[in-house]
Amino acid sequence: MIFVRDKGRMCNNILQYGHLYAWGREHGRSTMSMRFAYKYRWFRICHTRYHSFPFYVLAKYAAKWHLLPVADFGLDAPAPDYGEQEQRLLTHRHIVAEGWYARWYDLFLKYKQEIISLFAFAPAVRQAPDRLLASLFPPSTIASPSAPLPVSSYAATSPSVPHPTSSLCSGSAAVPQRPLLLGLHIRRGDYRRWHGGRYFYTDEQYIAVVRRYLMGILELLEQLGRLGQLGQLEQLETLYPICLLVCGNDPDLDEGAFRRALPGITVMFPKGNPAEDLYLLSRCDRLIGAPSTFTLVASMYRDVPLYWIEDPDKAPTDADFGHFDQLFRQIK
């Protein structure tokens, strides 16, 4: 058994365990996440074998008393060689694995659907977000994600996300059957210090990025002859409905500033717990946010296009959105 241990945040834990789970599957080894055995009890993995508080305590103190060896993938060397740590995983029948740099990208992708299935959301997590989504989408809309999903729904191959903007890019002038669901994740807190505050953006900077993206949609509409003059955001309300879902960890967001600066679109602040926000973002058509594992994991479930704000002055277009399979190799 490989007991996976870490102290990072929820989505860091999901990715770290995903890599070690994939390595274990490839080598015929069982794995257990110590983090999800007692914390973040919002996912299917929390109710699988060995993921309970007694097993967590057993592994924790066995490692503390040196009854279990440890493979450390958190070394601070500039270019650490983890071959020795991987050999420890192969050598010992029972071992604790820890550290952020346990990464096997190709194996992760090989077992990606199994990892997604393990981190399927519990029914209680989905209830409030599903009610919100149901209020946004007409019942007749086939592509609507409003229908409740079973816990095992992510076990099968994830469907490709229907992108309303694809009709614009292909030259179609048809009004979408449902709003484009744009997810914005605002990260504050520890980002004031992380990387020297490089990705600690103000409300005004987040708003400006969203406005520039929306103005790009208006330009496409103008090229298709849908606008008789230079477009204003207010025109989106009838020409191209958009709903912006703003999630994050800052309770002091200026909600009024978002609504005043983004007329013509629906702006909502769900204010869910971390798992509810993650689920809601995973149901969006596009995701925007500062570089973080939170938006990255949200993108993972349904391959939702994701734009990481590296330059808050840039005007993003659809070409600037990436996908999980590439972006998870670029984690900061």
Task: Name the descriptors.
332 residues, alpha/beta, four-stranded parallel β-sheet, 13 helices, 9 strands, 37% helix, 11% strand, elongated
Instruction: Identify the overall geometry.
Output: elongated
**Strand element count:** 9
- Main-sheet strand order equals 7-6-5-8-9
How do the helices and strands follow one another from N- to C-terminus?
EHEHEHEHHHHEHHEHEHEHEH
Q: Could you characterize the architecture of this molecule?
A:
The chain has 332 residues and is an alpha/beta fold. The protein has 13 helices and nine strands. The strands form two sheets. A five-stranded parallel β-sheet has the order 7-6-5-8-9, covered by helices on one side. It has a four-stranded parallel β-sheet with strand order 2-1-4-3, sandwiched between helices. α12 (293-302) links the parallel β8 (286-289) and β9 (306-308). α1 (10-26) crosses α12 (293-302) and α6 (123-136) packs across α11.
